[in-house]
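Propose amino acids for all 133 sites.
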């Protein structure tokens, strides 16, 4: 069973930075798709950034240029660097992983679709990011 454990959240002022980490375990192969989602109070969970096993990255338009996703395969760790934070970025940030089937069509779409179909992926418990003005 895949397990994901996030860390690195906290409270910062507007314009500040944070680095989130996610340690993964229980993988049965190295072809998982991983990324980050967030959920603000009263809002639906939404995708933030993702990275395929070959290093290809995808970002939500709202964070492109501010956030950077990366992974250290040797440490089984996923990172999300958050820069130029604004109060609107306050949310619980979740690490997620998926094992897209070969016939899924688009690995990127399969992963970002986890926001609507969370049971199709693996999730951490989240780490809170709070940005004050």
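Proposal:
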């Amino acid at each position: 069973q895949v397990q994901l454990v996030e860390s690195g959240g906290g409270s910062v002022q507007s314009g500040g930075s944070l680095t989130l980490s996610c340690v993964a375990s229980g993988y049965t192969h190295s072809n998982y798709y991983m990324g980050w989602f967030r959920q603000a109070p009263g809002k639906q969970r939404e995708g933030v950034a993702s990275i395929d096993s070959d290093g290809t990255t995808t970002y939500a338009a709202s964070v492109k240029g501010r956030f950077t996703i990366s992974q250290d395969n040797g440490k089984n760790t996923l990172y999300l660097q958050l820069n130029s934070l604004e109060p609107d970025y306050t949310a619980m940030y979740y690490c997620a992983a998926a094992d897209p089937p070969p016939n899924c069509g688009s690995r990127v779409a399969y992963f970002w679709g986890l926001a609507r179909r969370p049971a199709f992926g693996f999730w951490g418990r989240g780490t809170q990011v709070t940005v004050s003005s």
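The chain has a mean pLDDT of 95. The longest strand covers residues 18-25.
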